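Take a record:
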Amino acid sequence: MRRVLGVRGAVVVGLAAMLGAGVFAVWAPAARAAGVALLVGLLVAAVVAWANATSTAQLAAALPVAGGAYAFGRARLGPWWGFAAGWGFVVGKTASCAAMAMTFAAYLAPQAWRRPVAVAAVVVLVLVANRGITRTATVAAALLGLVLVGLAVVVSAGASASSWPPLTTGTTGTTGTTSVRGVLESAGLLFFAFAGYARVATLGEEVRDPARTIPRAVTTAWAIAVAVYALVALAVLATLGAQGAADSTAPLADVVAAAGWDWARPVVGLAAAAASLGALLALVAGLGRTAMAMAREGDLPRPLAAVDERHGVPARAQLVLGALVVALVLVADVRAAIGFSSFGVLTYYLVANLAAWRQPSHERRWPRGVQVLGAVGCATLALNLPGTAVTGGLVVLAVGVVGRAVALRRARQTEHAG
């Protein structure tokens, strides 16, 4: 693959993934879990994300190959660890792609047209991704610009509302108390806001000077995302209060309405649609490269390992994944199907932290204590997810492990028979 992406392009791809539809919707469930203490949850999520980001950057600088934690897990822990990370990521994020497409359609299309519009969005973005990583970064930058404008409007509206006292009220979750579990649940929800930095690592074969570019891009994208989420959280809580945020179905639109900025509601809607598309585009790129890396090792069908000679991208893998996403959009209730995605992402980063902990001293950029913090954080957040998400994640992981075991057994039998 071609090393054509610099720091700026890598940051854009990471931010497009982090500032997705979640920044427009996560505040309601986070407020229901922890009230105003969601700010503590945001801090916990940011710290865990930082530990994961540094582990990912350290690994990617030493192993600048496509596949992210799948490739890192195989190299430092063994094939089964790598498979667990890659399988959870591919299956979970394929469902997330369908959810992002449907979210985009929900903002722009009437109910009867939402599935066709979502399908069209998937098709267009897969075609963009197949034109090369520089084209992907250019489109992601345009979408990211729209998102940042929309979020700036929300923060400005919240500041102009002059209702900062609600920040001191509604301090409990919907259970009437702010428990440690409530804060951790909000952190688990908010953590996924920062998970997009993994998209940078999956592009390991396409960045220039990876030992320098990847760590800078990952940490820069993380820092910008933390600042943006903190400002938006303050605007939501100051304008709506914790209870108002918990009861809202569209918190950011309600912020501008509460400030009397009704003209800005379409701006927020457009920004949310752009965020969904940006996250979808970044996911297509990351999934394609992870699937390609898995196919190289035989953990997915080997034809998916093909790289388009003209554009230097895993076009076949991206087309197949795009077809799967379209099928999900057409036949599945993706909102109910993606609960296991959260569990899969935390498994992915748990493997990344363990792999970074195993790196030799000459590859290390941060002490091992950072990787311990990341691994413990991932495990803690995973266990505090809603029970359905944990159960669904374990089932998906078990299906993959059993399938790989059966495939390996058949391969050995064929080899012995030959």
In short: The chain has one domain: 7-417. Residues 168-177 have pLDDT under 50 and may be disordered. The domain at 7-417 is CATH 1.20.1740.10 (Amino acid/polyamine transporter I).
